[in-house]
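Bug: token stream looks shifted between consecutive jobs. Job 1:
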Amino acid sequence: MDDEAPGAPRPDGEGAWSVTATAATALALYRPRTLKNGSSFLVLDHFGDAQAIGSTAEGLFHDDTRFLSRLSLRLAGLRPLLLSSAVSADNTMLTVNMTNPDIPVAPDRKLMRDTVHLERQMVLGPGVVRERITLRNFGDAHLSTEMSLTFAADFADIFEVRGQKRARRGERLPPEARPDGALVFAYRGLDELERRTRLRFDPAPDTLAGRDNRWRLELPAGAKTVIEVTITCESGPEAQQPPEAPGFDGLLAGMRAWRAEREGARAQVISSNQAFNDWFARSESDLTMLTTQTPSGPFPYAGIPWFSCPFGRDSLITALQCLWADPELARGVLRYHARLQATEMDPARDAEPGKILHESRLGEMAALREVPFGRYYGSVDSTPLFVVLATQYAERTGDWALIREIWPNIIAALRWIERHGDIDGDLLLEYDRQSPNGLVNQGWKDSWDSVFHDDGRLAEAPIALIEVQAYAEAAWRGAGRMAKALGHEDEAAVWTDRADAVQARVEEAFWCEELSTYAMALDGEKRPCRVRSSNAGHTLLTGLPSPDRARRIAQTLMAPESFCGWGIRTIAEGESRYNPMSYHNGSVWPHDNGLIALGMKRYGLNVQLERLLTGIYDSALAVDMRRLPELFCGFPRRLGEGPTTYPVACLPHAWAAATAHAALGAMLGVSFRPEEGVIRFQRPVLPSWLDELRIENLRLGSASVDVRLRRHEADGGVSLNLLRRRGQIEVAVIT
């Protein structure tokens, strides 16, 4: 997936950027408290502290740099006792409730525990944290005590936090207490950029001492006091910093207004099953938090903590999964990638004209090219996926004005597929990195050992992945349909013919009769990697296989070797490199399953679809907060146990969150005919755990409908009622 997982082992020489960090505790078990806004994110423990106990991936991050590495609150020198800790349902505010332990106040007297209530509330804006600390004395006597906050700023690049070792770093300057009461930590980087963390306090601490800052508290019985802290991330000359952010309440109101705007742009879903509602609501809230408003529109960042930045493949797949409910997200993604599409050859960045972005970073190491990801193009699938999303967006919305706007980018992407992506002119899309520091594998499974033969030998580049051929075939076919709609008849015919040729070539080169599925890939000698993998399931999404082969692929994917009970494994049990604890060779990825579910629906494979959807749904119920992680281990499902966590999986992650939309889209079989003003539901399916479903604000152009679907116990059929219609729009059910 994204630059490989932190902690994934790699042999020497497989890329200078490789990382070796390991996690002491799986993020899914440890459950850090996370907020995100724009290019900033905050990861804290349950107490609202960062790295108060030991080294972790906690802190305040902005533009791929950790601006605050230590935050620790103490009452009378002791850590308070935790009562509760939660991020609000809309992901806008962290609230932590604590109380005092037994505190000695005299040789013969102590403050009894549970006397002082301490509440921490935090909100995150772009490059700024506002914290409000409220202390109240519930005792019957006056209280004199002390509260302290300890800070540190290491200005570590995100790749350092992931485990990358650097030969040298810039200069960390001593903390400085300014005359205006601000406390400033600063770092002068090797990229000649000065980064600063500025802290302001209201009221000012009685002791402002750099790392440790103390307030003397005098609290009469029943009284309370409030301390507010502002933490601001700054880069460049101080005179050029933006104006101060709104206060705590203003910042919170602005964030909630943005979230309300995003919610209003997409369909709303509620069902008769509260657990399903919780999963879907959590997924929507996480997607909104991970989405950043860019000049091109809304754009989903990949995941926290490792990938909170723009990714090509991730954003395109996330938008595809959500397209039926939220076409505005796809619009933002398409415009963003059109703007950053490569225009020239740059081997150091694996860039070629027409290629779509893989990843964009803003940190010091990227600026110095210690890692190649400042603006990196080393993914083979982003470019065809860009054309696929453009096609599906046009057919979902009828927004041909956007397609005309990005038509030169679509043409450039197709030229890249033909001229640069097809290295040897055999109609197949291959990859072979140009940058010695770039990614060895450039599909979504981008671990160094993720593409291999049935005897375990690693495939040598150039490599042609099966799912990428499906994306390419769909790109050519979709481009043909778009060209025809725009009146470009000659291009439409040529591109449709090329799609037919690619499809025939794939069937000839990849099908493995003895495995009842496609080979995972072809190596540089065109030898098939005869391995049962989830990659082949993506061909169902695009419609590449014949109906008979699609059925056989689905049966292979749902066999016990591949389907573990929670979902489909990336690699089937019994294959040479199968390891259920690996990043890509036996784990389960929710988004992978979501795409396969959409593909099963395309072929009317409803029996397999219901089994798969039940596994995905059950996994969501079994994880904390109903928040599906980036991936989990592929061990077989056991009674009374949930999925086994993968230690450093991102949580939340955009395309994992979008899996809820893919699952529901697969159930509904929903499609759109904007030229006719019709929304169609093709053989809708509601599993046994979902009796009734209501969808509001399902939009087509300026019109929208509210509908209700009900499952009939007697025969499992689904009926649909139109509840409300706004504008010229029709709803049709195809049985």
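Job 2, same session, no restart:
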Amino acid sequence: MQAPAPTAENAPLSKTRAERALRVATAALLGEIGPDGHWTGELSSSALSTATALVALSHLAQPQRLPGDAELVCRGLRWLSATQNSDGGWGDTTLSRSNISTTALVWAAFGATESDHSYAPTLERCRLWLQSACGAADTGWERHLARAIRKRYGKDHTFSVPILMACTLAGRMGPDAWREIPALPFELAAVPHQFYGAIRLPVVSYALPALIAIGRVLHHKAPSGNPLLRFLRDALKDKTARILESVQPINGGFLEATPLTSFVLMSLAATGESACTVALRAAGFLRASARLDGSWPIDTNLSTWVTTLGVNALSRQPGVFPYEQSSVLKQWLLGQQYQKIHPYTQAAPGGWAWTDLPGGVPDADDTPGALLALLALGPVDAQVRHAGELGTRWLLGLQNSDGGIPTFCRGWGTLPFDRSGEDLTAHALRAWSAWLPQWKGTLRTKVTRAIARGITFLEGRQRPDGTWVPLWFGNEHSPSEENPTWGTSRVLLALREMQHCGFAVSADAIARGCEALAAMQQPDGGWSGSGAKGLPCSVEETGMALEALAGTARTSAADRGTRWLVERVERGEWKLAAPVGFYFAKLWYYERLYPQLATVAGLGAAVKHLPPDSE
């Protein structure tokens, strides 16, 4: 009698088996390319986004409300009620645990829409969760809630002030609540952008629309007791309103982000400006971005980001793109590069944003991703070379004095958007070194020095346990919600490539990083955001770790991680997404394509180092 064939669970991890799983994942990822020749992806629905959109639409003055707005509000409330967590709160996604910011905004949404009676059981459970979270159950517990929200974000007012403002507009914080909200100096928006660093804005230029709109409503509701400051703010209301209009994208969506656009719209409505151009465009954006189930995503899409991730993940498989498809992808990516000074952030030409839509802003993660993808898509002709030089110089202009790379602009302080990020720096180093053979003379010298400074920055930021922590990705299950798995993987990829290219890199830093990453592996072979045992593993984090460890001395950890991913593909579980970003804002999302991208990248790196099958 013939022995039964081994099952997926007990079959040995052979190179053939891993290659088979990689082919399945690759075919599925290629099948996600849309009719326009690139990836678009799909962001998770967000309770936070949905709540802010409902508050904003509910505050529109009657002449600006459209007949369909009432149905949007009803669908949104039903979706929120249906997705309430069992503990009574809400997380940022339907897979997220409850947090105080999102739950407070949902509470505000029901209040703003005057739906407390219709959803009484839902709201009672919500109130109890909030009271427990802020540690107060008396009649004045709202003040404790305000303090808890301010504490969550610290000195950065970019997130705490809009949340408190929305809750106050919805009547949830008591009659004196306006005085409890830190004032935003919107008059500073009238200062030329070159001076933002000198005046140390309490929010960064990224959040300029919120600074203006919310600052104006706070001045309207609770003007300063200083007569000179009141006079100045009154005098600059019209000028700052014109600035707000000048930075609004044509489709109305600031940064393509539902929350930011909603905060601006509700602020304008609260000052009686529902009919102004900015408000009308913002309302149009919210109506257009609502989903059929009643929810809103955190952002419209990450099309440029997931396309560069897709190209770079597949780059280890030569010939996977037919020439025609490579050409279409290349031309599309070239078309996403900003050729003029950005009207919003005043960023120089040369960068890429995360999306192909009007609300995007060039940044230091998408730009390296695009630079690497252009090289992966074929020979460097004159057009690609010009784009590469422009992008390389753009990144050089961002490097901070500490040698690290910030997100949107050279930093002036310690707020998240302008401080150097270890993940961002690692990505920039990979792009710079990949393009270095193309440059001669002064540019080559500048890039070489920038790489050396970036390496020094990364080596200096390694923690005593051997890890690095990223700025843009976190894990809400990990201690402090950090994600050392993600950060360590990104930095190791960069440092190993720099070492291979001949740069002076500490072998000890790489060895300690590899050891730390292997130590964070969970008992089943997968990875979570940290090494704390018992945390749920994700395809995203496992793929990232596997890509970083493949080909290192940590063969055992890489083999176990490969088996973990292969088994997920064989069981059809490799497309299950997890909330992984973005950490610094305490705001979580997941992207449907992330696990597929991580699987192809991780297995693509691993199969090259698996020994051939024995005869």
